[in-house]
Amino acid sequence: xxxxxxxxxxxxxxxxxxxxxxxxxxxxxxxxxxxxxxxxxxxxxxxxxxxxxxxxxxxxxxxxxxxxxxxxxxxxxxxxxxxxxxxxxxxxxxxxxxxxxxxxxxxxxxxxxxxxxxxxxxxxxxxxxxxxxxxxxxxxxxxxxxxxxxxxxxxxxxxxxxxxxxxxxxxxxxxxxxxxxxxxxxxxxxxxxxxxxxxxxxxxxxxxxxxxxxxxxxxxxxxxxxxxxxxxxxxxxxxxxxxxxxxxxxxxxxxxxxxxxxxxxxxxxxxxxxxxxxxxxxxxxxxxxxxxxxxxxxxxxxxxxxxx
Length: 308
Prior knowledge:
- The chain is of the alpha/beta class.
- Helix content is 43%, strand content 20%.
- The protein has 3 domains: 9-76, Winged helix-like DNA-binding domain superfamily/Winged helix DNA-binding domain (Arc Repressor Mutant, subunit A), CATH 1.10.10; 83-167 and 275-304, D-Maltodextrin-Binding Protein, domain 2; 169-274, D-Maltodextrin-Binding Protein, domain 2, CATH 3.40.190.290.
- It is built from 11 helices and 11 strands.
- Strands 3, 4, 5, 6, 9, 10 and 11 form a 7-stranded mixed beta sheet that branches. A two-stranded antiparallel sheet has the order 1-2.
- Helix 8 (206-216) links the parallel strand 7 (199-201) and strand 8.
- The radius of gyration is 21 Å and the shape is globular.
- The N and C termini lie far apart (58 Å).
- GO terms for molecular function: DNA-binding transcription factor activity; transcription cis-regulatory region binding.
- It holds the Pfam family HTH_1.
């Protein structure tokens, strides 16, 4: 059977929630749906699409490999729907009352929601229009004027932007519980990490860039990846499925580590930290609202939040 009409975005959001929260009940609560209704909605999607989405057992519910792909694609659809909604809302506002922000995936998924919540409490807060991409795409959006302010997780910015450090992120090596590394008694060294085919983010992402530069400081290059994927969720799901070890932000794997679906592998002698940076176009003065948002990110008082 094939889908004869557009899938319900609420059900796609629910399926993504199952991957993020680890159960239908938790996902249903997150989207404000009763669990029986959520279960029926997912079963209808399975029947209509002909794609098996969930593996159900007495121990709970997990996504099938096919569902992991649907979740990855679904995130893009939901992000596009959010952009559509934000853009339609912005049609009635003027440029002066909007702040265009671009953010890399890790920042957008795990950090920016809290930053924006703090920003909206400020007296001069304006509407924020968000664009999400990898670090290279975010920098390009700033340079080309599509974004007033960007947030990336890399030190290697290229020309055309100025930056300010706003925090630090840490990458971690993770494996499925059944992987041999989950039982290691000693940390990985740089050579072993570099020589292993990993599941990694795509070229241009801050996560991939940070890993490559961390190993380059040891005169090592990253091995040909087992898979290179375009989102944190896709990398995380591949690692949980046992495809290969993965390297991701600690923010992206925290829930999976807490639930035991992934195991953290210690690494010795490799600095996997990376800076979080705000960027804006060199030679252009960002709008006042950009300074206010940066102040919220840094916890400054509103009067100290100017960007220069």
